Amino acid sequence: MLGTLLASISAMALAVFWFSGRAAAEAATVIGQRACASAGVQWLDQSVHLLAIRPRRGPDGWLGLERVYGFEYSTGGEDRHAGRIVLHGRRLKALAGPVRQAADAGTT
After folding, report:
1. What are the per-10-residue average pLDDT scores of the chain (108 residues)?
2. Dmax of the chain from CA atoms?
């Protein structure tokens, strides 16, 4: 009886961990796509990949999972650059990647 209860609790905890990870990955995908679109670069591979996961305290003081996702983009189709998205839960904490290029000052 106790073994069944522990197995059920473990299975539910694993399911919650899996689904929250998928939701965070989907949020990171949308963030990365929007960052690439606003910078005018090409989003490569159409996905993000998990680089790290660790427990961290959020701005509210509660302990949560911080996930670091990587993605790649190209400025001209012949190069590859790496970007990183850091999420606490599904909230964006940091983005390192494509930036909008300023117009050349010498061009009129």
Report:
1. 91 93 94 93 92 91 93 89 93 89 53
2. 79
